[in-house]
């Protein structure tokens, strides 16, 4: 964490002196908590079947409720941060997230827990873009030295997110085994409340920016409802069928709402998302590449978790421990990625990271029913994590390249939305692939372990293909180093990444052993 000390020099934002080291520490701790919560919940899900009486088919909604609210409200959350103030929304979102976590720990029934997870998702959609925007404000990029400090801050942010994923996996197994699933929800309550109380002392105000002459309610409604509808279709299609009237009808409604959103934004005087922002090739390329990367990467956590517990027979704690290497590899990659971007550029770093990630997914796709942990899980995880960490940081930098302070919340919301949609879409596709392959292997006489591992491996193989596709998209969509604007940066949850373990539906998407 030396970068925190190096960044401790005060900066001035809006006439207020900001201790950048303290601001980065608080924002990183907040990201840590959000990612920690995701990892904990992912490991604890199987215990909810017995502990709270969840039906297997309903268990997926513990994560799906979070996905729908987080993905659906991210753009609105980013714009609210710009409109009402970043620090104010950051603090309010943290308090709401903590309250929802407490309610979740006290839930008397599955419906209560699903509702609490939905509120957590909404709160995260408020906190995430506000936190990233505050990071940008705390670390301006007016000089070369400031740009270097900003890249170091992003490296710390990514490293802490990876550490939160690792700790969440371990802590989730420990708390579930020792105290029950409830402990996995209340553990982050005191941290979230403390962070909200400390925020006024160390964070810049992040005052509202731009004219406050109105709010684009029509745009907010159409984009939120449209994205929520599309994400719901993606995570629910496995249950009701891709060609069912429910899927086709709600999918058509979602698409129509998104088309209406574009029409509204083109005509309103104060749009929620000014369409002119998509004229920037770096922002466009970063968002497209992020969607493809997350489509290939996020489902890997889901399938490796199922593989360790359903095929290899690991306990929740052992399963969590077995997946720590990928989170630690991301920590290492994120720590040095900012320096690599400064040397070779965003485009080269992204392409290299994508290719390495795809190689790791290809390696992991060979997982056998009687697999060896070292060769079939440990080493592939390290390769996946190193590649994904470099590409992720590079794309988060590109995602806000050239964005002004007034647009920082919007840019972060766009990138996070791309990741959420990519995660939901990727899991929906790869779960369908895994399910079809598993069913086929069952039909040909393979035993359950062989059929499950074959389905999981096939899904990871498709994920590797998506990683290659992301690299190809980067080649064509991101400009070269000399054409890249001044490197802004901006941080993703890999928490969405590992936090995005929380967006991976768990339930009957893949046949249980």
UniProtKB/TrEMBL annotation:
> Which PANTHER family does this UniProt record tie to the protein?
BLR6921 PROTEIN, MAJOR FACILITATOR SUPERFAMILY MULTIDRUG TRANSPORTER MFSC
> Per the UniProt record, which residue ranges are transmembrane?
23-47, 59-77, 89-106, 118-139, 151-172, 178-203, 215-235, 247-264, 285-307, 319-341, 348-366, 378-401, 413-436, 456-478
Q: Which locations, inside or outside the cell, does it occupy?
A: Cell membrane
Task: Please tell me the species this chain comes from.
Answer: Catenulispora subtropica
Chief location of this protein? membrane
Q: What topology in the membrane does the UniProt record assign?
A: Multi-pass membrane protein
Q: What's the protein name?
A: MFS transporter
Q: Show where the Major facilitator superfamily (MFS) profile domain sits.
A: 23-482
Q: Which UniProt keywords apply?
A: Cell membrane, Membrane, Transmembrane, Transmembrane helix, Transport
Q: Which InterPro entries match?
A: EmrB-like, MFS, MFS_dom, MFS_trans_sf, Sugar_transporter_CS
Which is one Pfam family of this protein?
MFS_1
- What domain of life does the UniProt record list for this protein's source? Bacteria
